[in-house]
Every structure is written in C-alpha cells, then in structure tokens.
Design goal:
Length: 115
C-alpha cells in the first residue's frame, strides 16, 4: 500500500466509500462522480500504479478483477444487458488516481457514446 494513494486509503477504510464488492484481492465501490447510471470502480488491493506497472506475479490480481466484474454484473442486474469496462493508463489518457482501476459502466445504452 502507498501512504499517499487515495485508493489505498479507501481500501484501508481511511477514506469513506460505498462498497459494492470485496474479496481478498479486489475492492469495488461506487464512483463519486458517476458517468453512467451504474459507475463502479474496481481496484486491486495491491498498489499497482497503472497497466504499465503490472509485473510478473500480478496475474492473479488481474484475473480476480475480471472475476469480480462478472459477480458485480450479476449483482447489478446487467449481466444480460451489458456493461462497458474502461481502463485509463497514464495522465494523458485521463488516469487521475495512480492506482490501477477499472471503470464498470452500465445501466443505459451507450452505443457509440464514449464515456
């Protein structure tokens, strides 16, 4: 865990969040500034700054994040209608918190709309 990382503080319970899912590897919570009807952030409990910082040995975290997506989609009632996953990598791509996170967006039809 990084001491100055917002998401690490959320995982430790130092910053409040609305938890949607949690297991040994993953924490998921509602985005405070949602871009869709359902907007959940899914993060590894291990501090990994971005996709570019994934290392050998992090495979289990990536798999567990994808497994969590399936569980969340069912719990949110969107596994059949669909959802969009967005991962920003780096500041120029819009990554605001330097802790790997996946945006889970659902609850509306996106079509070609990029959120």
């Amino acid at each position: 865990m990084e001491e100055d990382c917002l998401f690490c503080k959320i995982i430790k319970g130092e910053v409040p969040s609305t938890k949607v899912y949690e297991d040994e590897y993953v924490y998921a919570f509602k985005d405070i500034n949602p871009a869709a009807t359902v907007h959940i952030l899914i993060i590894p409990k291990k501090h990994i700054s971005s996709l570019e910082d994934l290392k050998n040995g992090d495979e289990e975290y990536v798999w567990k994040i994808h497994e969590a997506m399936q569980k969340i989609s069912k719990a949110q009632g969107v596994s059949e209608s669909g959802y969009r996953i967005i991962v920003n990598c780096g500041k120029d791509a819009g990554q605001e918190v330097m802790h790997l996170h996946y945006h889970f967006l659902a609850g509306e039809k996106f079509g070609d709309k990029i959120v």
